[in-house]
Amino acid sequence: MTDERVLPDSWVAVVKRDCPTCLLVEPVLQQLAAAGSLTVYSQDDPGFPAGLPVVDDRELETSWRLQVDTVPTLVRVEDGVEVERTVGWLRSSWEGLTGMSGLGPDLPDHRPGCGSRSVEWGVAEELDRRYGDRVLSSRTVELADLEDEVEAAYARGWTDGLPVVPPTEARVLAMLAGTDRAPSDVVAVVPPDLVPCTVEKVAVNAVMAGCLPEHLPVVLAAVAAACTDAFNVHGVLATTFPAGPMVIVNGPVRRAIGMNSGGNALGQGNRANATIGRALQLVVRNVGGGRPGEVDRATQGQPGKYTSCFAEAEEGSPFEPLAESRGVTGSALTLFAASGSWPVVDQLSRTPESLARSFAASLRGVGHAKLAVAFDAVLVVSPEHGRVLRQGGWDRTRLLAELDELLTLPGDELVRGAAGIAEGLPAGFEGSPVPKFRPGGLLLVHAGGTAGLFSTIVPGWVSGAGGSEPVTVPIDPARPVEGA
Length: 484
Description:
By secondary structure, this protein is an alpha+beta fold. It has two domains: 4-120, Glutaredoxin, CATH 3.40.30.10; 154-474, no CATH class. The protein is built from 17 helices and 21 strands. It has a five-stranded mixed β-sheet with strand order 3-2-1-5-6, covered by helices on one side. Strands 13-12-14-21 form a four-stranded mixed β-sheet. A four-stranded mixed β-sheet has the order 15-20-16-19. Strand 10 (186-190) and strand 11 (195-198) form a beta hairpin. Helix 7 crosses helix 8. The chain is elongated, with a radius of gyration of 29 Å. The relative contact order is 0.10.
């Protein structure tokens, strides 16, 4: 972020005395000052270099505005605008930038510079808070001198039962660097209290969840998806069923932010997976008021209500990415109202036909083996099972068609009282074939480690208009993560 007010037409040098290379180039700075217009900004000693026009930059405002990360930095300014810079000491670069030859004839040709004070640990965040153009509107909660920050968050009801990262102003501003959206932009109206949630409020909760700034675009997309009428997060909260939002991420952003789509993808251990899902849950809790024992009425709940987020292993998959199959390409996520997961064990099938029958037998139990067209599900196919499908030439369409046929069940077996079980479909389905899942109600995803002939079923909550629809949205490309 360059501020033209601090860039006079001249050569501008940023230095600090506590830098051997800055001390080394002092005679070069003397040469430049004698030959033309030179302004020196000193980060730690306004008397250094002696005998030169030095501007005191101990507050580091100029260094921050010039985005200096290494000293010495030499900048050429024309018409108030930076046109070229060089860092450290490299004679050829300094001579090229200044148009002067014979600089520092007694110096070595090259010496690396030192880290700028403006990028030291904790300093950059404070400078961003002090000089940045992002102004926070959230109220500041003052703590007593002896009050522990983590315990204070517990006491105020801001946590999900685990410790949270205290959302200081500097941390929230650093989080906001992950998006170009204004802090005041409204992302969604969050149920159940129907509170407008700004980018800033999402950033606050992302800090508490332990996110990095590059995770913020994914969290923003997840919050927007959760608050759609189709996903119905209010219903997901209020049901006594153990449902919670599960985030499935596709596209280049997966690799850019280091998400896990391999071994233990649905488990612990990866920061992006763990904190993105947790940030969404904290937004619903802290902004929308969705707290357990209040609006959240789950009878038993399940661990995924802390966090549930993973990336699809698109590489080597027998399927196109989930988001692409749902009409969204590039970096995107799908939000699914998930309950607890259970494994499908099939270590013997070597043909797609046999494996599909194993999947179907297991999927029949989603919700209840005698309930149909009631619950959606996600089938997470592992790479070893995926290899069986791929080698057999089966893609998403073929597997779904086979499962649809295998899971079209005889109504006689499903009605209440059949097999001595009171649960089931109401009378009237006798003699009729009934599909286990509604059209589009079974989602296929490819993820997991390359060893283990196990896949996973994640049942959903009540499907359709009376429950929750899976929602797929793009991840805002306005500020793409590097590498995405």
